[in-house]
Give the backbone structure.
Amino acid sequence: MTTKRAPVARSPSAGIRGGIDLGGTKIQAVVVDAQHEVLGQARRPTPTQGGPADVVAAIADAMRAAAVAAGLQTSELAQVGVGSPGTVDPATGAVSSAKNLPGWTGSHPLGPQLGDQLGTPVALGNDVQVATDAEAALGAGRGYDSMLGVFWGTGVGGGLVLGGTPWIGRGGAGEIGHVVVKVGGARCPCGRRGCMEAYAGRNALEARARELHDKGEPTELFKIARKRGRERLTSGIWAAALERGDPLATKLLDRAVAMLGAGVASVDNILDVEVIILGGGLGVRLGQPFADRIAQAMAPHLFFSDRPPPVRVADLGDLGGAIGASLLA
Amino acid sequence: MTTKRAPVARSPSAGIRGGIDLGGTKIQAVVVDAQHEVLGQARRPTPTQGGPADVVAAIADAMRAAAVAAGLQTSELAQVGVGSPGTVDPATGAVSSAKNLPGWTGSHPLGPQLGDQLGTPVALGNDVQVATDAEAALGAGRGYDSMLGVFWGTGVGGGLVLGGTPWIGRGGAGEIGHVVVKVGGARCPCGRRGCMEAYAGRNALEARARELHDKGEPTELFKIARKRGRERLTSGIWAAALERGDPLATKLLDRAVAMLGAGVASVDNILDVEVIILGGGLGVRLGQPFADRIAQAMAPHLFFSDRPPPVRVADLGDLGGAIGASLLA
């Protein structure tokens, strides 16, 4: 671990920034110019073992690779923004309660440590909120005054823009994955029962698929994963299984859509937003046909059913989180 | 349709005002001075037959009686505010979709008609939102930047203050009663399934109590109602039955509390507010012991369970809605 901040080299192209989307599965890095055009990008798997130092090293590696792709060194970047899971303290750059990151117990100074390695200032924000802000500023949420971002991936995250401004509550708003859709229902990866994520999150979907496969339900899901050399069921694997008409994948995603419909409609009954943006690994991979299915699944639960909000797929796709992080002040 | 933040309820700079809380069961009228002190009040049952003209006449009658109690005529009031169910158009004074009011199909010019009868200007607002604003400005929500009002009565309504400002979305925010707590669950009075109100609203509780009583489950609920000359199970009747240890009342309210816990926690997982205010007929009648029970029922569902928001009973009690209406600009 370095103990000193490396000297910051200011380049003439000071508008060029880095952005990192730190996910439970992958780390996505981008370098963008002042017009938010992506000049370079790189992706690394999130370490599954080790601890915070390994995660910081992997982030730095991804950022360096993205910088190289853009023909730059990281010290030439005006700033690097990181959208992080867990609880983020933007003032100190510390991250705590990041359960999806290995060995991340307690609070760790992600921002300062990463800044040391990259030789440039680092700003931190919540991963889902920065992706929401990116869609609001540059993507499918442009022109709307209020939006709900639903990020359907490993888990299900949510971000809010209300009256043109992000709403983060006491710092923990947007946990749409943990809206209860069925009291006493399925166990969620978070340990609680009946959360929307327990039916719709990719981790929960995979666990349920394994369980039912072990009980003898036929599925190609794990065969496809083996062929692709994957240990986990990625969004692409789910999409491939669906395309082949896989019965288990179809059944589990039907249920996921039904529960997303109920949970998102519940939130809209409370907030009555202008637009709902569907992002996340599964949301982006399955695309507008699934956004339409979620809209259909919402319909029976919407209190003002005569004017449902549109459900649109995130414009910035897979890179939204990283681009959003690059916008951090 | 644009999303707007509702105008902030302002205290009258001068003058004595009237306020009306138009509920599905009763019409509550107050006359307040510039310091929001109640100078007079009156209550009338909401007509159960007839149409909009009968409702307007009953409101006018309640307001006149409150004015008499304050030693005034209604034409001496600077303004009368009305908190109305249904969809309110503050600009025209029209109310539509007020399902709990008799014969109220389509849109009716409640504001202008009432103004004619009272000889003073009438301002309209959403019933639940004005009650929320009253608690925020004068009641249990004072000093908080964000609050969720939960009005537990005939139905379950919700009101939001976020960042010190009411949030009404596209005009229909706050429908917390129709947050889905159990997909495929009990039929709600709204016609949908699994809504929180289907388990917790007084109409739903009464329907379920009748059904189980008819099937032979012992209860004093209807005996108490007969003794009191009531056709409906009022909040006071539920409270009396609970005090006697009535098994059916206990069972149904236990379930209501469990479902309120899940639904309110779901909303807090999304909004992460500073305080939750419990109002409404049942909320105010059952009081802080039930607010504490709802807080307990929320605990297993709260994502940030280490810092739950306090759940406080509405300070302004039964008169909150009418006082809130008197604040309408």
